[in-house]
Amino acid sequence: MIDIPDELIATQYAYNGAAGRAFVAALPELAGRFLEEWGLRPDGPSMYGMCALVLPVVREVDGVPAALKLQSVDEETAGEPVALRAWGAAGAGAVGLLDHDPGTGALLLERLDEGKPLSGAADVRGAVVVLGEVLARLAAVPAPEGLRTLGGAVERMLAAAPGAAGRLADAADRRLLADCAAAVREVAGEPGDRLLHWDLHYDNVLAGRADAGRAGEWVALDPKPLAGDPGFELFPALDNLFDADEVVWRFDALTEALGLERDRGRARAWTLGRVLQNAVWAVGQGEGRIAPDHAEIARRLLGR
């Protein structure tokens, strides 16, 4: 028997409907299958993210601590093992991939210290600097063939922008969305070719473990990878642990860490692209406004 956290069940039911209910129902059998096939024994309480169940385990053959991640296969998760292999080969600071089942999307990952996320750092500015260093290592790796691309995402968000703007209740939100779309159009012709994490916020960076030879290292996990421009990576670090007065400082620190400080206009445009992408998604879910934090990030970067 495994424990499936109520929060994961609620998220799957709310956002994925029938597919989410089927995913939750299949989890006990799926966990049992890979515990047996990969020779694992449970080693602690279940953990979860927005779309995955994570079981702390130990490999019986060698006693190595690991994490069994169970998730649905979709356009975001399909590229995760591809990205982790590329980052692993480059020594780029991502969680290690120990095994993978393509049919189910199950991953066996290096165990990190889940009790020490970067979000728990007392010095938030220091955490921003660390995250920037992690991002720089990840984005230095060229994207492997076959990943989803920022170019494709841009086409979809720009096509959806006029309709999304028309469903926003506030005129200021409509103008802001139009400004974000205009900024993206200026850079859309060069979407980039770096391997991007897409969701690197402070809870997706954990301390490495000494028994894995990674004591003192901060390690990225849970990517939703795509090929694109590193400027598209900055938004999560501005939104997570949100502080309106720190938006510009964080943006400057991150662009410096990624070597983008000479072309901050381009990085700003891609960050506004994330605001646009999120707004289009939110409107599609029935929201009638841009999330206040997201709108404030856009306004600060536009100098308003």
UniProtKB/TrEMBL annotation:
**InterPro entries from the xrefs?**
Kinase-like_dom_sf, NH2Glyco/OHUrea_AB-resist_kin
Q: Name one Pfam family in it.
A: APH_6_hur
The GO terms describing molecular function are:
phosphotransferase activity, alcohol group as acceptor
- One GO-annotated biological process of the protein: secondary metabolic process
Residue ranges annotated as transmembrane are none
What this protein is called in its record is Aminoglycoside phosphotransferase family protein
Q: Species name for this entry?
A: Streptomyces cavourensis
